[in-house]
Write a structure and sequence with these properties.
300 residues; alpha/beta; Nucleotidyltransferase, domain 5; six-stranded mixed beta sheet; five-stranded mixed beta sheet; globular
Length: 300
């Protein structure tokens, strides 16, 4: 599968698959996103982005069909909900009532979260299941479809970055039953995800005020992690956060790990890339999971 994620800074393309808890990465490409062409998941210069994608496909001879796209940081309305065990259509009706999108202008969908351990299996039907429900503007999705179709490239499905993250948390054996925070950075955009006992719990988004790589930005990120840890503690899950994993840090920002370790007393590190879980084939040497987190999660 070819998975594509266009961030503020880079176009991430990953050719691979995900089976039995292992990523197989056959090839990948990270190319700079044209300046001013993308802002927080919204295409702002379609011409520049179309030309760049056309050049990438022409140079690398990627397939033009069956492309899976993941978008992140876009204007999406979403929330965790508990719904009864009913049909797909009935769940969409529930989401429609809850999120109240504009009629005919939004696309509704959801991801099923893992079962609540506090509910016995025999009682699942009574209590229902937890989902992450979302509502996305059709015009936003269509802008991506048009962008790729103008280069003769067919998008077969579009996923959300938060769902990619949820799927990775469930997929990797090393993260199961762990309580941790994942931080993703894309330019000045900052997202936090909390997983409790291996299951997605909450997330938040933030825009950095200070320039990346500066001491002020280190202090700002550390403070935000501290605030998120405090918020996580209010969930009263009975589980303490063990790690903070980072995705998208620059090389000159790695000192941030030790700053968070000493300031907050929690282990901060790059998102784990275990060779037993991420098999990088010859043409994909140099691939790093944390730098391609959303596109990789979209392979699952």
């Amino acid at each position: 599968m070819i998975s594509v994620h266009i961030s503020n800074e880079k176009i991430h393309i990953v050719n691979g698959d995900a089976k039995f808890g292992v990523f197989n990465i056959y090839e990948y490409l990270n190319a700079p996103t044209p300046d001013g062409s993308m802002l927080n998941g919204v295409i702002t210069d379609a011409l520049a982005l179309r030309e760049e994608i056309g050049d990438i496909w022409k140079t690398n001879k990627f397939p033009t069909k069956g492309i899976s796209l993941v978008i992140d940081n876009a204007p999406v309305v979403g929330k965790v909900m508990r719904v009864p065990l009913v049909s797909h259509k009935k769940i969409l009706r529930i989401i429609n009532r809850e999120l109240s999108p504009q009629e005919g202008e939004n696309v509704l969908d959801y991801a099923v979260l893992h079962a609540d351990d506090n509910i016995k299996k025999k009682d699942q039907k009574k209590y229902g299941m937890d989902i992450y429900a979302c509502s996305v503007q059709k015009s936003l999705l269509q802008s991506y479809v048009d962008l790729f179709e103008s280069n003769g490239i067919r998008i077969t499905n579009i996923n959300l970055g938060i769902n990619s993250m949820i799927k990775i948390g469930h997929f990797l054996r090393s993260l199961r039953e762990k309580t941790y925070i994942v931080i993703t950075l894309d330019g000045s955009s900052f997202a936090s995800y909390l997983f409790v006992n291996g299951k997605y719990s909450i997330s938040s988004r933030y825009r950095l005020i200070y320039d990346r790589g500066t001491n002020l930005s280190f202090m700002e990120i550390t403070q935000h992690v501290s605030n998120f840890l405090q918020f996580a503690s209010t969930q009263r899950s009975g589980h303490n956060v063990e790690n903070v994993y980072f995705c998208g840090l620059y090389k000159d920002e790695e000192a941030l790990y030790s700053q968070i370790n000493s300031a907050l007393g929690i282990k901060a590190q790059i998102f784990p890339h275990n060779e037993t879980e991420v098999f990088v084939h010859k043409k994909a040497q140099g691939f790093i999971l944390s730098d391609n987190i959303y596109a990789s999660g979209n392979l699952i």
